[in-house]
Amino acid sequence: MIAVIGLVVGVVAGLWLQPTVPIELQPYLPIAVVAALDALFGGLRAMLDGIFDDRVFLTSFLSNVVVAALIVFLGDQLGVGQQLSTAVVVVLGIRIFSNAASIRRHLFKA
Amino acid sequence: MTDEPTSDAPLPTTADPVNGAVHDAAPHPLDEPLTAQVWHPDDAAPAADETADDADETAPDADQAADDQVGADETQPASVADGDGAPRTGADASDEAGADAPGDMPATGGAEPGTAQQRPDEGDDVAVGAAWDGEEASAASEGPAGTSSDPARGADGTGHGDSDAEAEERDEPDDLSPVQPAEAATGAAAGADESGVAHEPPDADDAGDPDEPALAEADEPVDVDGPSDVDGPSDADGPGILDEPSDAGPPVPADEPVPAASSVGGWTALGQALRPRLTTAQLLAGVLCAVLGFALVVQVQHHGDTSLEGMRQADLVRMLDETTDRGDALARQESNLTSERDELLSGSDRRQAALDALRRTATTQGILTGRLPAEGPGVIITLTEPDGAIRPLTMLDVLEELRNAGAEAIQLNGHRITASSAFTGVAGAVVLDGATLKAPFTWIAIGEPDAIAPALQIPGGAMAAVRTDGGEGSIARQSHVEVSAVRVVPDPVYATPVPVATR
């Protein structure tokens, strides 16, 4: 419940403050958001599986964001930024779908 | 149902039993309520099994004996016995044993039976392997509440000799067994709490802890002990047991709800998870979710207004190429349009010039041919015939003299002189282009007046010829004369223009 409250608080803060994204971070912010979403879904699935560990959730959240941003940055340096960005988004999307399917099976038994 | 005794110290040490008997034998495993742990020593298990079996066998007999005794003791037992008999008839051995348990449920204290009754329900829910019929058990337990114990005991007492001894043993274990359920009930912080309430303590106790260990612990014992546990609590020793220390309380409740949650389904787990608890894990998750929500909103807002500053180099290069190509195409189009415009303008100018030239030519030709009236400086010559008639030949001389002097438009008595004009007739009746003229003759000629007048008056000129004919002439130089007479010349019939050689 506190997580949901935190999410709402973050959304409200973003709408209220309306900050401008620094130029350097602009290409990486969407990738980081998708990686964080993947970690969130993973945590939710772990909670329903009964194997939720807060430390694992924290590390997975941070590592997902950092690794995704690093991969995109590396791709930009190498010259394949667009392709690597697409690959990262595809993989994260697959993981999100897998976690969502597991959650669905837990909740709806189907 | 063979139990896997997970011995717990507290139970054997408790010297509480109402009977005061020492329970060296572990409480009947069947006596235990839904507690996950079987805290009885190993000895208790086989004895418990035997007693359970005996209880099953003697159940029908006990019922009948109970009826006999019930009539003597109480009126309720009869109904109780019936109630017990009814579910038992259709139940298996294990079911009967289970039915016995509720029948045997101690009628002591209100909370005790209540909790004891609840336990069968819990046991029904939790016990996976047992064929426990919860409905029967609950029905049996509800009916005979408080009174079943008497017939049961009576049954035990009147049953087989073995059953007596074993029943006593069962009683004793029953005494002990309710302890844990009682403790569990107390641990659940309420005497008559539902099974659902039992879930509370584990949550509170295990807040933040991983559910897995509790799950692992709870699954095995619960599955095995479920049915036996249900049988256990039915004991008249409830109240005494309730007083027992709740050593076994915390672990028991901790184990109970966990298996129930997993078995109930994801929604329960989700509901439990969503319950707000002030733990590090929850706070951490809240903080991370706040960051996620913040970044999500920022990104969504930012994506609406994309600028060149945040784009990648490859994208910028591509955009530059596209823009350059478009610029070149536009430049080419501009040059094409400019040349076309110039061409159009010049073409119209040429046309206009041609038109102007044609107009001028037409005007000139019209004046010269007599089609158009003209005006300008010239002379007016007046010829009279005072002494004779002027011959046509003389008129022709005058005309030739005028033309020789540069007259451009000549008019005689209102008749235009053209290139095809001719004087015919005789003196006195000069005919010009079919029209007879009479004196005085008025010549109007447009030209240089100073050139025409002297030309006419040269010795031996036209005027001399007129004087010779007996006429008189006067020449008046005018700065502006008007030749208004026109003569439309018919188109040539025989003559055709020579084709103009194209350059």
TrEMBL record, chain A:
Keywords: Cell membrane, Membrane, Transmembrane, Transmembrane helix. The chain crosses the membrane at residues 27-44, 56-74, 80-98. This is Small basic family protein. It is found in: Cell membrane. It comes from the Bacteria. Belongs to the sbp family. InterPro entries: DUF1290. Its main location: membrane. It is a multi-pass membrane protein.
From TrEMBL, chain B:
Residues 1-260 are annotated as: Disordered. It comes from the Bacteria. It holds the Pfam family DUF881. Residues 129-149, 182-192 have a biased composition (Low complexity). Gene3D superfamilies: Protein of unknown function DUF881. Residues 50-66, 164-175, 203-234 have a biased composition (Acidic residues). Belongs to the UPF0749 family. This is DUF881 domain-containing protein. It comes from Cellulomonas alba.
